[in-house]
Amino acid sequence: MENDDNRRVVIVIGAGPAGLAASIGLAQIPGYSVELIEKRTTFEKRGASFGLAKNGLKALSEICSGESYEVVNQLKEGGVSTPNGGLLLPWWEMRDTLLEGARKEQSNITIRMGMDICSIEDEKDDSQVTVRFSNSDVVLRGTMLIAADGVHSSVRGLMNLPPSVKTGSTVFRGHINALAPDSKLVELLDRGMVPLGGKTYDGTHIFALNYHPKRPGLVTWVVGTSKPVIYGKTTVRTLLENQVEDAEEWKIIQSLFDESEEEMVTTPSTETRVVDFSDEYFSSLDDDGGWGGSGRLTLIGDAAHAMRPTDGQGGNQAFEDVAVLCRTLRGALTSDGDELVPPSKMDDWQTCSEVLKKFESTRLDRVRRIHDDQRMRYEGRMRGEKVGPWSDEFRDWVLQGV
Fold it and tell me: Which stretches make up the FAD-binding domain (predicted)?
């Protein structure tokens, strides 16, 4: 499928927060339009919380410029402010706010649901990337492809990149309404933002966030474990039932799970998989300077550098990816030393490849440093070690953003 004007099509795979933000940002660059592809057929109310840190908010403010800045205003209005200048939001509300922003760009963004990518052709002698799907006859062609399809990225496999590796951690996520008529947990709403304190029991960590009164009655929770999980048998109840010694506390935790949808309690939201940015990993790549993209294909967010769920930087680094990607493409439209690189010149395989490699190399050092920090802190927490806060210097550097 070709677009019907002179705009170059960017194909974005994955309509989570990273893909939606990328679509909004790319659609505002003169000369580009976006085909946004999502495997799921619907946008479900799922997940727990999204921690939009100061650096992520800064990146989104840059991405959503002009009329799209309303997205940022809505997030600020609906989120719970944090001491370091960030926001806490229910995951699905973050996603839905970005989705609304993308839909308002309907002249520049086409959203296609329920399409499962099965092949990518990126030939040097072809002016475009060709994408096909296992469950649709639609064939998309675009100037470049951005993979934002998460930790289980299909695009990674199609690119023959080193596979993601299991960390041994499994995560369950859920939420409840403590103001529901039959709820036994209204008392949690008076316990502050972190009503359960965040505790680890023999390799299993539980953490809850209280959004009341900003979001009346809403409490979200996350359970992460390094214990073996048998799908269809292991639940958050079986992980914790013999670990919590305080009877009153266990009663509260039980009620938290009982009042959640059963699927949240029994089915892991994510089996965390990441690529560790080790020297061995980079030596396995064909080219230096990036994290695995090649030709006119690149990855952002969890598809490129999934992070442990420690300090909530995964989503924020995805937004930074988008901000830097859009800067890089905008820079290609302006005088950069020798010549201008308008969208039409991105039809050249080598030119497009060099621009995307510049994006990856620009991001790499910062992403590696934050990724390594999150990995070490998460591993310590799962060993039951006391993990203190960031140093002031490191915190300021992270939150300063890009």
Answer: 10-338
Phi-psi map region of 33: left, alpha, beta (phi>0 left; psi -120 to 50 alpha): beta
- End-to-end, the C-alpha distance of the chain in Å comes to 36
Angle between helix 349-382 and helix 313-331 axes, rounded to 10 deg: 160
Residue 278 C-beta-side C-alpha neighbours within 13 Å: 11
Which residue shows structure tokens 């057929």? 41
- 116-127: per-residue pLDDT in tens? 999 999 999 999
User: How far apart (Å, rounded) are the C-alpha atoms in residues 128 and 175?
Assistant: 43
Residue 242's pLDDT is what? 86
| Dihedral angle, C-alpha 19, 21, 22, 24, nearest 10 ° | 120
Helices (H) and strands (E) counted in the chain, each on its own, are 13, 16
pLDDT < 50: residue spans in the chain: 1-2
Tokens coding 265: 């309690």
Percent helix, percent strand, percent coil in the chain, to nearest 5: 40, 20, 40
| Per-residue tokens: 240 | 């914790």
Beta-bridge mates of residue 65: none
How big is the chain by its Cα radius of gyration, in Å? 22
131: β partners:
120, 140
Task: State the Cα–Cα distance between residues 241 and 351, nearest whole angstrom.
Answer: 58
| pLDDT of the residue at 81 | 92
- Which structure tokens are listed for 98? 């970005």
Contact between 268 and 170 (Cβ < 8 Å): yes
* Strands 165-177 vs 32-38: parallel, antiparallel or unpaired: unpaired
Quote the pTM value.
Answer: 0.92
pLDDT at 330: 92
The beta-strand segments (E) located in 238-328 are 270-274, 297-299
Q: Please tell me the predicted confidence (pLDDT) of residue 337.
A: 58
How long, in residues, is the chain? 402
DSSP codes of every residue in 78-116? HSEE-TTS-EEEEHHHHHHHHHHHHHTTTTTEEEEES--
Quickly tell me which residue has 């935790």 as its tokens.
Answer: 253
pLDDT for 1 equals 44
**pLDDT of 119:** 98
